[in-house]
Write a sequence for this structure.
């Protein structure tokens, strides 16, 4: 009887105790990062290097920062938020959903893009007011859309720009997109005559299809990307490790390689 009981107990230990403990210990930690669409190429390159270094698997969810902030407020499962502006990070922070102080990890530049060889010839911001020009922007709540409109306001009434320059541009806007990637795609496909995007979104894939022009010096607002661990993170330690990696020289190298500027 004792021998039989021992056999049963051993079998139970092997099936449950031994099986669940070590397997659970062997399972890899994983996190989800909500990141601005403009970070797609940089983070897709950075992610595998982070995983190789730390053993933490990372899944990215990209989109307009305003959309991501709303999803976080609604309870979407995320461990880290990387925004394309301070405003949307503040939205999440004001909702008491950020753990610790957000840190700026990158900066960007704003450029004007047009389809390569387009007969409309949009080469300066003033050309956005030409009759018949189809302008595609990101929505005002999307960081790049907000930056674009702030730039238009700064240009108004200066150096030959009319005082109502923003209103004149707005008359030519045919589409307000949910993120910067949608703007780039539509312009590259010739669905619009001009758009405003980040310089980092003129990737090698779309660059041959675009003409690119800078904005005048001193009119574009600072474009800052903050990052933070979220208070409801499922794995706060791994989430902090990701933030630390992004801020590290190694992490910064992936951003610089894709045109981002160090903070």
């Amino acid at each position: 009887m004792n021998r039989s009981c021992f056999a049963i107990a051993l079998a139970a230990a092997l099936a449950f105790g031994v099986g669940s403990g070590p397997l659970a210990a062997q399972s890899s930690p994983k996190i989800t990062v909500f990141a601005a669409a403009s970070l797609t190429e940089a983070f897709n390159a950075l992610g595998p290097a982070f995983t190789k270094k730390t053993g933490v698997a990372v899944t990215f969810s990209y989109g307009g920062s305003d959309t991501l902030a709303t999803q976080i407020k609604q309870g979407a499962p995320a461990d880290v938020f990387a925004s394309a502006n301070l405003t949307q990070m503040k939205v999440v922070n004001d909702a008491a959903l950020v753990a610790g102080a957000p840190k700026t990890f990158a900066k960007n530049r704003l450029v004007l893009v047009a389809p390569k060889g387009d007969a409309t010839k949009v080469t300066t911001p003033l050309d956005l007011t030409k009759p018949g020009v189809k302008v595609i922007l990101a929505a005002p709540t999307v960081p790049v859309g907000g930056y674009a409109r702030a730039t238009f306001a700064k240009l108004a009434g200066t150096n030959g720009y009319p005082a109502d320059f923003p209103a004149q541009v707005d008359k030519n806007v045919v589409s307000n997109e949910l993120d910067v990637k949608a703007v780039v795609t539509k312009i590259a496909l010739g669905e619009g005559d001009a758009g405003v995007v980040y310089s980092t979104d003129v990737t090698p894939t779309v660059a041959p299809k675009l003409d690119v022009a800078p904005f005048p010096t001193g009119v574009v607002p600072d474009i800052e990307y903050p990052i933070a661990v979220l208070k409801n993170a499922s794995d706060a330690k791994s989430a902090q490790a990701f933030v630390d990696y992004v801020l590290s020289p190694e992490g910064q190298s992936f951003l610089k390689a894709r045109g981002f500027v160090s903070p």
